[in-house]
């Protein structure tokens, strides 16, 4: 079990987030350390000399005759001091020259490790399985994956905030979720990841067993437990086999390797700790591959790039160096393997950038903005591609339906416009005929005054007709609106009638089925009754008890058959007039269903009464035969 140790290791903690200091050349680092070591050693020698002088002065004050040192003694002391300083410098140089192992590297953890079949099956369920197996099977060194901070700073300085693009040789190259997943071989699913950085440790079986009493996950102790599972000690191996089975042990190893990869590579934090909120990714281990880890890791890195200084960036910054190699011709791949990070050596990248710096890259050094994927790499995003195709197909179907609906509406409008045009033509013809009549009356008005009056009346009639025409147009528009409303109501009523008819048919089918079962049971009971009459004289009490058992069996059978029938429900569509009162037919259907529920309640009450009557019949066996007949009658009436 992993717990926070009381005495943590004395190794220096990592700086907060990702703190990088730009330097001109990486080769100057050991020289600087040598100079610092020499300074510290010289300071210690100075302090030693000052103490010796103080002691000598104290001795001179106490002694009357001070001791004199000869020249030989002074030379010997000076030579001894010089030798001590040279030894101190040698120690510092040896410490700087020795290659340091990466403190929390997943590569150093899986060095010279082999998984058994059970462990391989469980690790295969991890989203980082391709990367873990590639590290074990491939010949990879820690120095090959060691990142260079100055190169990262220069690369991040070319980033365009808010655009998720880098400026290389005058070209804007975007960073996508797909590229990061291809580089590390991360399997991505459809489930999006939402993790709160602050919160309590989740109360799960795995967390309580492995991280009992710990508020955070300590990476060094997590590494120790992984080593113990991979290389268990000889003494404790038998006890461990009793406590945990091999499958659970392999599952625990796979979960810890996934969390260790998250804490060391994808989400490095302050010091050797990992937030317990990442336990969510391993709670449902069987479905952990369905998480979209590549999108989650890329989004976190992009947020850090948009909001942070180039020298202080969190997240998986190592991926940016591999991304640079994939999009440029700065380096040639060592070998074509899967995943792609196995092709590149980070220790050679600094030397190559001395020949071709990032700021002065020629155009020919930059590749195409999109990576060419192999079939194996496309398989990492098979679930996402399938989901996108389904969404696209659904969108096409919806657009086709909308297009058909719009065509129908356009045809209806065209028909209405034609009808209105015909009405307008007729009205114009009427107006012209009236105007012709008026012109004839005007010619005759010069001779007859009566004709002038008639013309006035005709003018009045024309105005009235115009008003009638306007009213008729308004009424026609209202009739079209009412027609649409009536058609909508007719559609709603027809849908309700279809639903009611379907419900009635299904209910009738159920009732018919129940009636057939009851008739079969009735025939069975009559046959048993006849057999009882034949053996009544021999042992009537014995016959009655057998009939009661059969009755109980038939009752149980009927209840189980009624309960076993699936209740078909029809999901109604939401309508505009959904809040209206149900029709009389739906009320009748509801009454029938309520009546069935009431019959079931009456049956339960009747069952309780029959249990009490059984006890009474045992005391009076002479009334047993009549009681059985009455019970049978009650059962048939109830059904």
TrEMBL record:
Bias (Basic and acidic residues): 36-45
Ranges for region Disordered: 1-94, 567-598
Coiled-coil intervals, chain numbering: 382-444, 483-535
Biased composition (Pro residues): 1-10
Taxonomic lineage from the root: Eukaryota, Viridiplantae, Streptophyta, Embryophyta, Tracheophyta
Ranges of Basic residues composition bias in the record: 16-28
Protein name per the record: Aminotransferase-like plant mobile domain-containing protein
Record keywords: Coiled coil
């Amino acid at each position: 079990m992993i717990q926070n140790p009381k005495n943590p290791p004395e190794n220096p903690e990592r700086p907060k987030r990702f703190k990088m200091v730009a330097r001109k050349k990486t080769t100057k680092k050991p020289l600087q350390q040598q100079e610092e070591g020499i300074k510290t050693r010289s300071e210690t020698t100075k302090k030693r000399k000052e103490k010796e002088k103080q002691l000598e002065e104290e001795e001179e004050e106490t002694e009357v005759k001070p001791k004199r040192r000869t020249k030989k003694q002074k030379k010997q002391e000076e030579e001894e001091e010089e030798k001590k300083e040279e030894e101190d410098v040698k120690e510092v140089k040896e410490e700087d020259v020795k290659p340091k192992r990466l403190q929390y590297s997943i590569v150093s953890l899986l060095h010279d490790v082999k998984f058994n079949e059970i462990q391989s099956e469980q690790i295969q369920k991890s989203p980082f399985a391709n990367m873990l197996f590639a590290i074990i099977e491939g010949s990879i060194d820690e120095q090959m994956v060691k990142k260079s901070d100055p190169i990262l700073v220069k690369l991040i300085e070319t980033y365009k905030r808010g655009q998720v693009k880098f400026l290389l040789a005058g070209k804007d190259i975007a960073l996508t979720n797909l590229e990061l997943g291809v580089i590390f071989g991360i399997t991505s699913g459809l489930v999006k990841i939402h993790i709160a950085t602050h919160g309590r440790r989740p109360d799960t079986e795995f967390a309580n067993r492995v991280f009992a009493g710990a508020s955070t996950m300590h990476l060094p102790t997590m590494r120790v437990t992984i080593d113990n599972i991979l290389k268990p000690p000889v003494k404790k191996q038998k006890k461990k086999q009793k406590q945990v089975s091999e499958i659970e042990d392999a599952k625990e190893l796979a979960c810890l390797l996934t969390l260790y990869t998250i804490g060391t590579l994808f989400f490095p934090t302050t010091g050797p700790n990992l937030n317990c909120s990442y336990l969510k990714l391993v709670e449902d281990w069987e479905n952990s591959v369905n998480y979209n880890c590549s999108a989650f890791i890329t989004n976190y890195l992009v947020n850090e790039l948009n909001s942070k200084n180039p020298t202080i960036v969190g997240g998986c910054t190592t991926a940016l160096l591999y991304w640079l190699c994939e999009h440029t011709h700065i380096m040639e791949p060592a070998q074509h393997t899967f995943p792609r990070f196995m092709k590149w050596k980070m220790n050679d990248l600094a030397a190559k950038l001395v020949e071709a710096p990032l700021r002065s890259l020629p155009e020919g050094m930059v590749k195409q903005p999109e990576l060419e994927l192999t079939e194996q790499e496309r398989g990492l995003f098979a679930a996402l591609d399938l989901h996108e195709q389904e969404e696209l197909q659904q969108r096409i179907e919806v657009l086709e339906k909308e297009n058909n609906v719009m065509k129908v509406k356009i045809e209806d409008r065209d028909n209405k416009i034609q009808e209105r045009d015909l009405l307008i033509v007729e009205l114009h013809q009427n107006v012209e005929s009236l105007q012709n009549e008026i012109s004839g009356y005007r010619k005759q008005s010069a001779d007859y005054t009566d004709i002038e009056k008639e013309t006035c009346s005709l003018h009045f009639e024309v105005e009235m007709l115009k008003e009638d025409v306007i009213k008729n147009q308004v009424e026609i528009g209202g009739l079209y609106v009412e027609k649409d409303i009536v058609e909508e109501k007719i559609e709603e009523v027809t849908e309700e009638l279809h639903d009611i008819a379907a419900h009635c048919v299904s209910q009738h089918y159920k009732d018919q089925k129940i009636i057939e079962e009851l008739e079969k049971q009735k025939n069975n009971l009559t046959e048993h009754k006849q057999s009882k009459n034949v053996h009544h004289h021999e042992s009537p009490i014995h016959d009655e008890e057998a009939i009661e058992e059969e009755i109980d069996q038939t009752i149980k059978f009927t209840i189980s058959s009624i309960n076993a029938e699936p209740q078909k429900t029809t999901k109604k569509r939401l309508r505009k007039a959904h809040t209206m009162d149900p029709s009389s037919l739906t009320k009748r259907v509801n009454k029938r269903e309520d009546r069935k529920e009431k019959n079931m309640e009456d049956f339960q009450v009747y069952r309780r009464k029959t249990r009490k009557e059984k006890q009474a019949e045992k005391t009076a066996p002479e009334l047993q035969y009549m009681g059985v007949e009455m019970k049978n009658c009650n059962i048939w009436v109830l059904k």
